[in-house]
Amino acid sequence: MSTIDQSGTFNLGGRSVKRLGYGAMQLAGPGVFGPPKDHGAALAVLREAVASGVNHIDTSDFYGPHVTNQIIREALHPYRDDLVIVTKIGARRGADGSWNPAFSRAELTAAVHDNLRNLGLDVLDVVNLRIMFDVHGPAEGSIEAPLTALADLQRQGVVRHIGLSNVTSKQVAEGREITEIVCVQNQYNLAHRADDRLIEDLARDGIAYVPFFPLGGFSPLQSSTLSDVAARLDATPMQVALAWLLRRAENILLIPGTSSVGHLRENLAAAGLVLPDDAVSELNRMA
């Protein structure tokens, strides 16, 4: 058994994926805008991820824009049969690198076809609708119009499954009335645990939860606590944060990103990190 196999598997859109995947966001340039500083290194990271057993890659055509998906295609196409590529729509990039809502039916349709073209696919495995009522986090508001437009694209056969990103529990419930939701992607980590109940509700229904920013928004005290635990376990803070998430709930799928092969290997090694109960208790108190 390879290290990544120790993370276990979970069903995502009818397919079994390793619970430790890879997020491609950092393959674009600074600010997730423009090309990477080292194109060859970006290709190497993707190939190393798949060679290490990763079969779940998270991306979006608004990373770059277009850059990340084009690199994925160059590095990995034709894709392995077991590889699940999950993308996002609902935003567009301004000329200044800003993140702007793109919710109209025309914008969502164009985004799906941009993803298809740049990834070199005839159908997208999973498309997450990124809700942009507030760029910085979930904000209430009806998602019926954009989600209905995405569901229409699913009926046309260019999208297999649909997920939601940057959403509230109320929006998840609204979305599930409109179409089947196979995953939810929100910020969640040791320090930011507003979605605790949502994760448990989704787990009961077999729906994947995909947290991003595993080290995002920590206070200095929280960072110090995490570093202390990591030092005692001879691990990195990121490894400990990822291992805690894997232990937190069986429906959690991880997508840590990096542009470095060395950091990728460190992240994947988190699948084999066993957290002692006393360390888990200490980490739980960080929230």
From TrEMBL:
Record-level Gene Ontology MF annotations: oxidoreductase activity
Origin: domain of life: Bacteria
Residues of the NADP-dependent oxidoreductase domain: 19-285
InterPro entries: AKR, NAD(P)_OxRdtase_dom_sf, NADP_OxRdtase_dom
Cited Pfam families: Aldo_ket_red
UniProt-listed Gene3D superfamilies: NADP-dependent oxidoreductase domain
Protein name (database record): Aryl-alcohol dehydrogenase-like predicted oxidoreductase
Species for this entry: Rhizobium esperanzae
